[in-house]
Amino acid sequence: MDNEDQFRLLAKLIVIGLLATMTSLLATAADSSPQVVLNTSTARPRAVESLTERSLCRDYKFAWANLAQAMESNSNDLLSGLFAGAANTWLNDAITNQRRNGLTSRYLNQTHKLDAVFYAPEGDVIELHDTADYDLQILDGNRTIDNEHVRVRYVVLMTPGADRWVIRQLQAVPRF
Amino acid sequence: MTVLSSLSLAAIAYSQVGDLAGPSNVVAGSSASIATTGSGTGMFYLIGPSVSLKREIKLGEEIVLASSELQNAGRYVGIVCAGACHSTEVFVIPAKPVSLTFLVHPSRAPVDQSDVISGVALPFDEFHNLALGTIEVSFQLTPRGAAPVSHPASTQGGIAWFRANSGRSARPLLVTASAEGVSAVRVVQQVASDPCGLHIKGQRTTKGIVVETEPVRDCGGNPVPDGTIVTFTARNGTETSTVDAPIKQDIARATLTTNGPVVVSAASGVVMGNELRMGAQ
């Protein structure tokens, strides 16, 4: 094997290695992002258009991914534009208080089963019921003080913004 | 790790988790306490929708949660660590509603249309929690100078709504939502619908043909709002010229600069007017 062949073999190995790493990273990212399923068949009085359904699903998933990041890194910036009104105030307060006390929270392996239960006649507000499953870890510094798998039911109000749906109310309830 | 017992607004049930016993539900803005066992000191954490607090406690004593710490409805986790950690779950449920978010559409509605007006009411307590229990909401539609019409409704999942026809007369409509002593008012301006027939008249002057409509009204006799556009069209053989004129005080007026014989017509929206034949100057 001359030098040129060795160089080609090395280049091939590097490319294969890079591809394997990227595939692995993408798979990890896909696994850690929230899984969201939305059922709009129960929405009343207005039916949810398919484009709206896709937007709701996308924006809700994005909001929860950012919420998880914000609660883990104690960064308020990650919430901007995805939450509004009471939901925005509460989450920002939670992060500020976490930071003050040296606490962090991790929302892992999230799955959200959403049912649209009310869609306003003019399409300016939608109520969703989210049955969320996730692993919640609460840490004081580096020490895990709580680690549990929880199923939490949320009543969610979303309103359309300029280019996305924003969460205005994210209220956990004992049952629907 | 966490056990939920059946919940009730009136009664507070207790759930025992490890070394902690706390209420399973608390009304927003109320104080509560969590009982602990053991001796010595420990660290108490409370994690809730907007709360993340941490304080040292004496084991064996009750942990008092102030009303200011339990204002936002949702799931709270109380954790006590003294060596090992134990947690308990508490739900804060909304208090009595003190305000209504009331969305009404549209702000201007054409008269005599079916299901054109709709409203959505959402009751909130003083801490901006959506009140989720069933609440009777009365929607009242009062045209100015006329008797009100009621649309009773109940909230489902914190929302009540109605849909209604617009009235026959162009006048303001007061829309009120009332629930548990709280009310919110919105005003819908009922305006004339599309013009109903369009009659024009004209005369030739030295500057051209001055054409104007008779007072433009909808089919219910309501004057069409100022600013509604009427398009005048003058045809002379194959030549056509158009002028858009807004209605001002019920009448739209325009001057068509043409010398030859023309046929003038008018249209507003989907409504056509009569044709006017004018001879040459």
List keywords for this structure.
heterodimer, A: alpha+beta, Nuclear Transport Factor 2, Chain: A, five-stranded mixed beta sheet, 3 helices, 36% strand, globular, B: mainly beta, Immunoglobulin-like, 0% helix, disordered N terminus
A few lines on this structure:
The complex is a heterodimer of chains A (176) and B (281). Chain A is α+β, with helices and mostly antiparallel strands. Chain A is built from 3 helices and 5 strands; from the N terminus they run H-E-H-H-E-E-E-E.
Provide the fold topology:
The complex is a heterodimer of chains A (176) and B (281).
Chain A: H1 3-32, E1 35-39, H2 50-73, H3 85-101, E2 103-119, E3 126-140, E4 143-160, E5 165-173
Parallel strand pairs in A: 1-2
Antiparallel strand pairs in A: 2-3, 3-4, 4-5
Chain B: E1 14-17, E2 20-23, E3 25-27, E4 32-36, E5 41-47, E6 52-58, E7 63-65, E8 74-82, E9 84-93, E10 97-105, E11 108-110, E12 117-125, E13 136-143, E14 149-154, E15 160-164, E16 172-179, E17 182-191, E18 200-205, E19 208-213, E20 229-236, E21 239-246, E22 253-256, E23 262-268, E24 271-272, E25 276-278
Parallel strand pairs in B: 3-9, 11-17
Antiparallel strand pairs in B: 1-2, 2-4, 4-7, 5-6, 5-8, 8-9, 10-12, 12-15, 13-14, 13-16, 16-17, 18-19, 19-22, 20-21, 20-23, 23-24, 23-25
Structure description:
In chain A, 40% of the residues lie in helices and 36% in strands. Chain A folds into 2 domains: 32 residues; 140 residues, Nuclear Transport Factor 2, Chain: A (Roll), CATH 3.10.450. The longest helix of chain A is centred in the first third of the chain and has 30 residues. With 176 residues, chain A is an alpha+beta fold. Chain A is built from 3 helices and 5 strands; from the N terminus they run αβααββββ. About 5% of the residues of chain A have low confidence. In chain A, strands 1-2-3-4-5 form a 5-stranded mixed β-sheet, covered by helices on one side. By secondary structure, chain B is mainly beta. Chain B folds into 3 domains: 80 residues, Immunoglobulin-like, CATH 2.60.40.10; 95 residues, Immunoglobulin-like, CATH 2.60.40; 79 residues, Sandwich (Immunoglobulin-like), CATH 2.60.40. A 5-stranded mixed β-sheet of chain B has the order 3-9-8-5-6, with no helix packed on it. A 5-stranded mixed β-sheet of chain B has the order 11-17-16-13-14, with no helix packed on it. In chain B, strands 20, 21, 23, 24 and 25 form a 5-stranded antiparallel β-sheet that branches. Chain B is rod-shaped and about 110 Å long. At the A-B interface, α3, β2, β3, β4 and β5 of A face β5, β6, β8, β9 and β12 of B.
